Every structure is written in C-alpha cells, then in structure tokens.
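Record passed on underneath.
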Amino acid sequence: MKSGKGKFTWDDGSCYEGWFKNNLFDGEGTFHFLNTQGIYTWSDGKKYEGLWKNGEPCDKNKIPQR
C-alpha cells in the first residue's frame, strides 16, 4: 500500500510524482504526460481539455484563469 511521497509510472511512460495515502493520490503532485489528448481538472472545478506535449498544455489560451 502506497503512503507518503513517491512516483507511479504507467506502461506508456506517463507518471505521477507526489503524495499518496492509502494507495491513492493525495495532496499535491505532478503528472508527466507524453504527447496526448487529455483533461486536467483543478480542485475548484475549472478544467483544461486539449492536447498536451511534454507534460504541458499545447493551447495556453484554453487554460482557465484561476
């Protein structure tokens, strides 16, 4: 069971680095995506949906203002 700070890597090379609690992501962390389509949702419900390249959103204009 994962608890504390660590890194989880998927078969495609994408990974999450951050905190775990009871085998779940918990608190702050960072996802590293390969070039792909995806959605990132912030805790306040705002989201970015679009293409990602090297872990960064490709269309910075679509990122909601926080």
In short: The chain has no helices and six strands. The radius of gyration is 13 Å. The beta strands are 4-9, 15-21, 24-32, 36-41, 47-53, 56-57. The chain has a mean pLDDT of 84.
